[in-house]
Design goal:
Rossmann fold; binds 2-acetamido-2-deoxy-beta-D-glucopyranose; 3 domains; glycosyltransferase; UDP_glucos_trans; single chain; signal; UDP-glycosyltransferase; transmembrane
Length: about 525
């Protein structure tokens, strides 16, 4: 009898597996890896994941971000996007310009205009796949997961009958999502996604942060409106992007509260930053023989990588020479340099330099023999180095990287170096030596890693529990904040302040009348005896 109850319990457990569709556009490695990792967490828990990969950037079409997903549906690219990206040579242009263009977001204006257009084309293209839509509808998915970068994905989920959606942003806060949820942006003390200054802002710093926020809002609005404009007439769902985004079950952000600045958030916002990192303690970060040998050669090992979007081989020659000069002056240190040109002879004269087109970054960072990480400060790399407790020199190139840089330096384990100094070997060397000479960098980095290891809620569990919960209860209306319906005057109680001001002025006016009246009366009574004397 007991045994059959046990069987029933197991059966019940099996029945709780659910079907998830992950919409993971081929756009950039950091985006794919993030959604891929969420997929892996769900697969490890026994759930059934299907990944839909529409190609957004042709050069990225092979990205999956996961080794575990078996059900993959690839969807091509709208030919108009292909044409535009080829004509604009967007990828190559971006890769070359990235080293010298201004790090501030406004320098990307030109790309952003094209981004809205291409997003609209892709929405149009997706909704034209009637057969696929039919096929996906039959699958009856329990949950859809995607990123707010493409609003069209949310409408597409709706079209195939998915009722419960989780927005999973591979970035820190997106302004559009914050606005849609009615979450305080706290621009006076919380540095926005693209803010080059930290949370101690003077007047002009706050002006900059506010303008940055408005810029982000403008970007979201233009892009979302373009995508909504591309929805077919037959589509019956909402055409209000704020409503679409606030109807999600949860909003995952790739931020970790123990690394990032403190900020107010609503219950739908869930911090998952760090769920993607395997630490040594988890037993999953191990090195192959090849890399083990590289790290064994010298006592000091430095890893140099600028991520997957900026290529070291596209650097201006002055930058390359400056790095080589520094490497040559430190023969007792091994430098592993991510350099994307295969079999390059650039560093053949330097036995302490290993060029590589790829390396297991996280596993190398997890190794005790790695001394220092020189990085562009992409969010993925920033979180990895924080978890692995490695001191770093951060050289932000663009987008959110300047913000990630000061987010890391705040913890005392990293030093920021301006990319305009990369043609000066002395500056690069000074930065490296400063971090190596002062043991506080290492101490602070290791302390942050320990904090992350011991944080009360493990990001991986947080992801799984919130997915389970979303499938069980759907999007809870009660988690929505009424704040999202208020206008700016109501939101900041400016209408009340105005009313108070009006009342105050009226009182002041009445007082003025009374005083005037009393004064006149006094004058009359003081003057009238004189009259009597007369
Ligand atoms: C935008 O796309 C057009 C082609 O439609 C191209 O000529 C232009 O260079 C692109 N702009 C940027 C900044 O990529
Ligand atoms: C680099 O060298 C390897 C082996 O020596 C060879 O297989 C590969 O094709 C080379 N790659 C390029 C781009 O030359
Ligand atoms: C670091 O220490 C070395 C050796 O003690 C010294 O030569 C170098 O000037 C120091 N560099 C910095 C930037 O402190």
């Amino acid at each position: 009898m007991k045994f059959s109850i046990f069987i029933l319990l197991i059966l019940a457990e099996l029945c709780t597996t659910y079907k998830v569709l992950v919409f993971n556009p081929a756009f950039g490695a950091s985006h794919s890896n993030f959604l891929g990792k969420i997929s892996d967490i769900l697969i490890d828990a026994g759930h059934e994941v299907t990944m839909l990969i529409p190609v957004f950037v042709d050069g990225k079409k092979d990205l999956i971000g996961s080794k575990k997903v078996k059900n993959i549906i690839r969807l091509g690219q709208d030919p108009r996007i292909y044409q535009m990206q080829k004509e604009g040579a967007t990828e190559e242009l971006m890769r070359k310009k990235i080293w010298t263009m201004g790090a501030e977001i406004t320098s990307m204006l030109g790309f952003i205009g094209n981004f809205s257009k291409t997003s609209a084309y892709q929405t149009d293209y997706m909704f034209a796949q009637t057969e696929l839509i039919e096929q996906l509808r039959e699958e009856k998915f329990d949950l859809g997961i995607t990123e707010s970068l493409f609003l069209g994905a949310f409408s597409f989920f709706d079209e195939i009958g998915i009722k419960t959606i989780i927005n999973a942003d591979s970035t820190l806060y997106m302004n559009g999502v914050k606005d849609a949820l009615g979450e305080p942006a706290a621009v006076s003390y919380y540095p926005g996604l693209f803010s080059p200054i930290d949370d101690k802002m003077d007047f002009f710093g706050r002006v900059k942060n506010l303008l940055g926020y408005q810029f982000g809002m403008w970007f979201s609005t233009v892009k979302y409106d373009a995508e909504i404009g591309a929805l077919p007439k037959s589509y019956k769902g909402s055409r209000d992007w704020r409503k679409i985004l606030s109807s999600v079950a949860f909003n995952f952000v790739n931020s970790n509260q123990y690394i990032d600045y403190a900020s107010p958030s609503l219950p739908k916002t869930v911090f998952v930053g760090g769920m993607q990192v395997n630490t040594k303690k988890s037993g999953k970060a191990t090195l192959s023989k090849e890399w083990d040998e590289v790290l064994s050669k010298r006592k000091t090992n430095v890893l140099v990588s600028f991520g997957s979007n900026a290529f070291s081989c596209d650097m201006p020659d002055e930058f390359k020479n400056a790095f080589l000069e520094v490497f040559a002056s430190m023969p007792e240190t091994t430098f592993i340099w991510k350099y994307e040109e295969a079999n390059s002879t650039l560093a053949n004269h330097l036995p302490n330099v290993k060029l590589t087109t790829w390396m297991p970054q996280n596993d190398i960072l997890a190794d005790d023999r790695l001394t220092l990480f020189i990085t562009h400060g992409g969010l993925g790399s920033s979180v990895e180095l924080a978890y692995q407790g490695k001191p770093a020199v951060v050289i932000p190139l663009m987008a959110d990287q300047p913000r990630n840089a000061h987010m890391l330096t705040r913890h005392g384990g990293a030093l920021q170096l301006d990319k305009t100094l990369l043609d000066k070997p002395s500056e690069i060397k000074k930065a490296i030596e400063t971090v190596l000479n002062d043991s506080n960098y290492k101490k602070n980095a290791q302390r942050l890693a320990k904090i992350l290891e011991d944080q009360p809620n493990k990001p991986k569990d947080v992801v799984l529990k919130h997915c389970d919960f979303a499938v069980e209860y759907g999007p809870l209306e009660t988690l929505n904040s009424e704040g999202r319906h208020l206008n700016t005057f109501q939101y900041y109680s400016l209408d009340i302040a105005f009313a108070v001001l009006v009342v105050f002025l009226i009182v002041l006016f009445i007082l003025h009348l009374i005083i005037k009246f009393v004064f006149r009366l006094l004058k009359r009574t003081l003057l009238s005896p004189k009259k009597k004397v007369d």
